[in-house]
Write a structure and sequence with these properties.
The protein is an alpha+beta fold and 329 residues long. It contains eight helices and 14 strands. The chain has a seven-stranded mixed sheet. Strands 1-2-7-5-6 form a five-stranded mixed sheet, with helices on one face. A two-stranded antiparallel sheet has the order 3-4.
Length: 329
């Protein structure tokens, strides 16, 4: 399970097993989506599989995740998502009404994200060899002229912005799966981020890096960017927006909110000269209303993430071995 959690074990699996087997330069960036040039047009291409348990949770379902997750991966390259494929893997015995609800959620999420489901597939596996419904989506989108967004472009001096409160998706899944109550219902933040990225690009095409902090949360995403760019990241822990119910749930369960999954948030590495304008544009968008600057790129400790704590000290924010809560997407 650790190899599927988005942490160090996942990275080792990709680096030492899959990437050598596939052997091409397109995979070298290891970003959320890959930028391609086809017939003179710059495209982004991405694929993702969804195995979340339970299938329905406060704020969404596996159907919403399947659309929003791939749309967001394309958006992290600055691409405007255009078309998705959608493949369902169904376990024998799954109630067709459940499959229907999920299919309806996929369709509604696609309309909300402004994409079309252009092709698909269905497979059925024996009872006991699945978990109801698994979904794979792949997507393509157009990258606007002059946009070059990738992890390697993070540069000392960049400010790090998060688009809103963190940890809501992971805690929403946990509350349903484990039957926990935290005094107030926490709903998943799942949402398509293409419109928010468009608003940011309207301010400047020179966004260096975007990443949606899904599996492994903000900490994992920052570590991946620091490693890819060879820069250090200084995180201002007090500035990270953690909702009170998330903080309470994490305190109760001994979890760090920085490692809890999100499905409707992004991290942006923005040149300092553009940061104020980008932050204002984000806050003017419904999905970025609570955006905040949470850190910066530095020349010190290259390839590492260090947090300045609320008490003035510092601590290293490591890449996790696996996922605190598996199968959250």
């Amino acid at each position: 399970m650790g190899h599927g959690g988005g942490g160090a074990l996942s990275a080792e699996l990709v680096e030492h097993l899959f990437a050598p087997a596939y052997g091409n330069d397109l995979l070298a960036g290891l970003a959320d989506s890959t930028a391609l040039t086809l017939a003179g047009t710059r495209l982004a291409f991405s694929t993702d599989s969804y195995v979340v348990r339970p299938l329905f949770f406060p704020g969404g379902s596996i159907g919403d995740l399947a659309v929003n997750g791939t749309v967001n991966d394309l958006a992290m390259s600055g691409a405007r998502a255009a078309y998705l494929s959608c493949a369902f893997i169904l376990e024998e015995g799954t109630d067709l009404s459940v499959v229907g609800r999920i299919a309806q959620a996929v369709g509604a999420a696609a309309v909300a994200a402004g994409v079309s489901i252009a092709t698909g597939d269905t497979k059925v596996v024996d009872a006991g060899h699945g978990d109801g419904v698994f979904i794979n989506t792949s997507g393509i989108g157009l990258i606007p002229h002059g946009v070059d967004i990738r992890p390697q472009r993070a540069t000392p001096g960049d400010l790090v912005i998060v688009s809103g409160p963190i940890g809501m998706h992971g805690v929403a899944i946990m509350s349903v799966r484990e039957g926990l109550e935290f005094g107030v219902e926490v709903t998943s933040d799942t949402a398509p981020l293409g419109g928010l990225v468009d608003a940011m690009l309207d301010v400047t095409p020179d966004l260096h890096t975007l990443r949606d902090p899904t599996r492994g949360g903000v900490a994992t995403a920052l570590n991946e960017i620091a490693a890819a760019s060879g820069t250090g990241v200084l995180l201002h822990e007090h500035a990270v927006p953690v909702p009170e119910p998330v903080a309470g749930a994490c305190g109760f369960l001994g979890l760090d909110p920085l490692y809890v999954a999100n499905e409707g948030r992004l991290l942006a590495f923005v040149p300092r000269s553009h940061a104020d304008a980008v932050l204002a544009a984000m806050r003017a968008h419904p999905l970025g209303a609570q955006a905040a600057v949470i850190g910066e790129c530095v020349t010190e400790h290259p390839g590492m993430v260090v947090a300045r704590t609320r008490f003035g000290g510092t601590r290293v924010v490591d890449l996790p071995l696996g996922e605190q809560l598996p199968r959250i997407c």
